[in-house]
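Mods, move this if it's the wrong board.
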Amino acid sequence: MVEKFGIFLLFLATTVSTVPDCRHGACDALTCEAGWTALNRTRSCFKLIRNVDISKANAECGLYGATVASVGNAEENKDILEFGIISQVKKSEAYFLGAKKKGSGPLGFEWIDGKRFNYTNWKKGEPSDKHNGKSEECIEMFVRYWKFDPTKSLEQNMEATDAGKWNDLTCGWSPRVFACRKDQRPEIQGPSKYPPEEPSVITTVSKPKGPPCEAGWLWTNTTEKCYKFLSQSTLNQSIAQCGKMDASVAMIRSAAENQALIDLWQTNYNATVKCFLGARRFGKGKLDFRWLDGTNLTYNNIHQPYIGETEDCLELFIGDAFGIASIWNDVSCEAQEQVGVCEKKKLHSTS
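Not the wrong board. Structure tokens:
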């Protein structure tokens, strides 16, 4: 474990706050929604979150259709570093990346968004695996500018300091911050369109609305929502995958919705499975759960909940093989369920 450093508060307008080139010539400026920071290097939007642990950070990012930042290459590493500088990450805060240990050595980690862990930027001597006898199972990025020269580029300053380098540390380190990241595609503006000559007769034709869901999604009239089942995943992986499709992990508001989701699976797949619901525990009580959108459980079908340190999520049993079909059970958020399920609004009115 190396000594922790923060950043000096610097004015960066002439250095790293703008990246105009998009790698190949000029491109449209990237625009992000309010509260997000746009960085053109990888055309991504970033948002800082604080005061959560790593198991909950990806869930919070998922509410915005984002994931805790993973790093796939040097350009992404620069963007995440630059965002930490712009956000003025405090000296006392650990700037966490979205990774957890699964093995040993420099490649003995995995990104919690499911991407391959095949790029690293470790500080010399890291990862050290343990500190004061405690296993170091998370990764932070140094946001440090002791010798920062505002006349030089971000790349030159990275070469002169450990800025952007990684260090392994205990996941319980506090305070800690995370960067939510979501990629954006540039808007493509076509040529000007000139209206045709006005016809002498105008005929109005009603265009068929088409299916209420996009290809690969399933529809049910009961909830008037679209659903998509995923392969085996943890809750965080489901949140990340659903978020990439502008969807959320399924949240059930009534007994009718509960049965509709079960019927949808059995009609299309006819198998016995368990799947995560989009909820997390917020207290120590048996029913202290909330949906990932922050709303309370106005309906629940929880069967004999177990109050344990690790069972902070909910799963739905589908099928009779378990002898407890349609009920909910509290389970570890890191469990590998047989399926995940995303939900999203319909494309258009079905009336």
